Amino acid sequence: MHTKIALEAGMDNEEIEKMLSGTFENIPEDELAAIMFAQHYADSKGKPSEKSWKRITTFYGESKTLGILGAIRMIMMGNIYAITLVSFVNRFKGKSDSGSTILYEIAIMISLIFFFPIVLVHVLISFLLRTPIIDFG
What we know:
The protein has 137 residues and is mainly α. The chain is 73% helix and 0% strand. It has helices spanning 2-8, 13-21, 29-43, 50-60, 62-91, 102-129.
C-alpha cells in the first residue's frame, strides 16, 4: 500500500527503493528530523526519550511538533486497523496471516466502534486533569 501511494504521489522507483531500505538521502532536510522522530516514536512503542522530544520541539517549535505527534499517532492507529483488515480479507482469499487469528481480527475491527467514544472521554478527562500529552520511555 505504501509503495502504491508513493508511486501515485510521483516518486520514482529509485526513491521508493531508498525509502524501503531506510535510506534518507533524498528527504528534504527540514523533514528529516520529523521522520527520524517518527521512526524513534514507533520503535519505542509510543514512549520516546525526553531528549528526543526536546530536540524536535526546539527544531520545529511546540505547535508544529504537536502536529507531527498527532500525525504519527494517526498513522500508527491507521496501520493497526489497516493491517488487521488486510489480514481479515486475505484470510478469505486463502492467504491467512500465521501471526493472526480470525477472532483477533474481528475483535480489533469491532473495537473501533467502542474506541471513539472512549477516546473522547479520555481526552476530556486528560484536558480537565491537565495530564501531559506525551509519556517518555
